[in-house]
TrEMBL record:
Species in which this protein is naturally found: Paractinoplanes hotanensis
Highest taxon of the lineage: Bacteria
Keyword Repeat: no
Protein name: Pyridoxal-dependent decarboxylase
Lyase recorded as keyword: yes
Pfam families: Pyridoxal_deC
Upper taxonomic lineage: Bacteria, Bacillati, Actinomycetota, Actinomycetes, Micromonosporales
Keywords noted in UniProt: Decarboxylase, Lyase, Pyridoxal phosphate
Reported cofactor(s): pyridoxal 5'-phosphate
PANTHER family on file: GROUP II PYRIDOXAL-5-PHOSPHATE DECARBOXYLASE, MIP05841P
Length: 463
């Protein structure tokens, strides 16, 4: 077995060294994917050849999304300590189900959750769950909200479901993320449960409208979703105003802070998440701005007991129940058997500390401002939004082009086809735009400059 691991180790050095120079995607290499198909082998092959093939195809055809020039979606990289710890997680193959299945994984998870609370300035008394993604963190948080809401109506939804209940009112701004809707859909509320209170085409919150909707509920409990870092321009709902309404009307306040929660790390951006400690639940990703490998998200929940109430799994004689001292994190979140995803979180926080992560966030804030300045300086580019955090929303507006939406959509496609840098398009206030997001520790000013140069070059060729 150690020979196979030696193969991976040998390939890793060259691959990691290539990341800062290579294209995000080499379109020609995609033909290699055919080498992995064919029928299921009856008798199997030489494992050394199998791993050699996987590494050869993967290092050529894989997307260099952990490299410094993948600005699509919101995609973090992997710090060295996090990567080594992730390998360790695979090596040890712990089941972080309970204290019995792995006291080690349980303890590291406890420490990692404590450090995350500390990193974001949240009270030690909060509970938490390490999950696979922010989608699952939204699911976990809104699962707790659902249980709380059922309880207000005298129903234990974990035991009896939603059948006896009216529809759960959920209110948010137009910034609400598709994954929060997906979470509501998985929880049985339906993704259309969200009442959007937006005052404009961007989706900014209309607090007066939200208050009127809350008034019309006549005291019935509701759930508010505040969005700390929306995906088009990195803007924030006013969390403290949401908290004020939640307190006045007795609502559950959930904050989707998938990447925006990291604004708390720098005094320059911390005001953007003012009031976040007044939330009942917060969802965030570690595989974005914490720069640990996929799959890694987390939910932080003010009332720790709510996690056990919503996600406990009592009733099997061979399993520990929620109150059992031998129980563990499987009873405080949606998954049962699970890998020790705490290890890379623990390692990156242990290796770089609060200051290291603050420094990284601030470097990205500076890079985003640099990108904004480069966009502003280019006559054929037009910035569409203030840059509050790590996303720059802009479009090309070359002279003489009539259909700018079509042009920018084609520019986005050309960017992906070219492969040197990656960014995605969106529709911002009715206009097709690019929205590069900067959250990878490897990204430098040279990468940002190359990004702008490639966008301008491709736009020029399209005219
Ligand atoms: C990325 C993101 C999500 C979903 O995160 P996944 O990790 O992809 O599940 C949710 N909300 C916001 C604001 C995001 O940026």
């Amino acid at each position: 077995m150690s020979d196979l691991l030696g193969q991976v180790h040998a390939a890793a050095g060259a691959y990691l060294a290539s990341l800062s120079g290579r294209a995000v995607q080499d379109p020609a290499a995609l033909s290699l994917l055919a080498e992995l198909g064919g029928p299921l082998p009856e008798s199997g092959g030489d494992p050394a050849e199998v791993i050699e093939r996987l590494l050869r195809v993967g290092t050529a055809a894989g997307t260099a999304s952990s490299g410094p020039r993948f600005f699509h979606f919101v995609t973090g990289g992997v710090t060295p300590a996090a990567l080594a710890a992730d390998w360790t997680a695979a090596l040890l193959d712990q089941n972080a189900f309970s204290k019995i299945s792995s006291p080690f994984a349980h303890e590291v998870e406890t420490v990692a959750l404590g450090w995350l609370r500390d990193l974001f300035g949240l009270p030690e008394s909060w509970g938490g769950a390490l999950v696979g993604s922010a989608t699952f963190a939204n699911f976990t948080s809104l699962g707790c909200a659902t249980h709380w809401w059922g309880f207000q109506h005298g129903i234990d939804t974990a035991a009896d479901g939603l059948a006896e209940l009216p529809r759960m009112p959920v209110l948010s701004s137009g910034y609400v993320h598709a994954s929060a809707r997906k979470a509501l859909q998985m929880l049985g509320h339906g993704r259309n449960a969200v009442m959007v209170c937006a005052r404009d085409g961007v989706g900014r919150i209309d607090l007066g409208l939200m208050r009127r909707h809350l008034d019309s509920l006549k005291g019935a409990p509701a759930v508010l979703i505040a969005n700390a870092g929306e995906v088009n321009a990195g803007d924030f709902d006013p969390v403290a105003e949401f908290a004020g309404l939640a307190e006045e009307f007795g609502c559950w306040l959930h904050v989707d802070g998938a990447f925006g929660l990291f604004a708390a790390l720098s005094p320059r951006t911390a005001p953007l998440v003012d009031g976040i400690d007044r939330a009942h639940s917060i969802a965030a990703d570690a595989h974005k701005w914490l720069n640990v490998p996929y799959e890694s998200g987390f939910a932080l929940v003010r009332d720790q007991a709510r996690l056990g109430a919503a996600f406990g799994m009592p009733g099997a004689a061979y399993l520990p129940g929620p109150g059992d001292p031998a129980s563990g994190y499987a009873l405080y979140g949606p998954e049962s058997s699970r890998r020790a995803r705490s290890l890379p979180i623990w390692a990156t926080l242990a290796a770089y500390g609060k200051a290291g992560h603050r420094e990284m966030v601030e470097r990205h804030l500076d890079l985003a401002q640099h990108l904004a300045a480069r966009v502003d300086a280019a006559p054929e580019l037009e910035r569409l939004a203030d840059v509050k955090l790590c996303i720059v929303c802009f479009r090309a507006r070359p002279r003489g082009v009539a259909d700018l939406d079509d042009f920018n959509r084609r520019l986005g496609a050309a960017l992906l086809q070219d492969g040197r840098v990656y960014a995605g398009t969106t529709v911002y206030d009715g206009r097709v735009a690019l929205r590069p997001a900067i959250v990878n520790w490897r990204t430098t000013e040279a990468d940002i400059d190359l990004f702008v140069d490639v966008v301008r070059e491709l736009a020029r060729k399209m005219i």
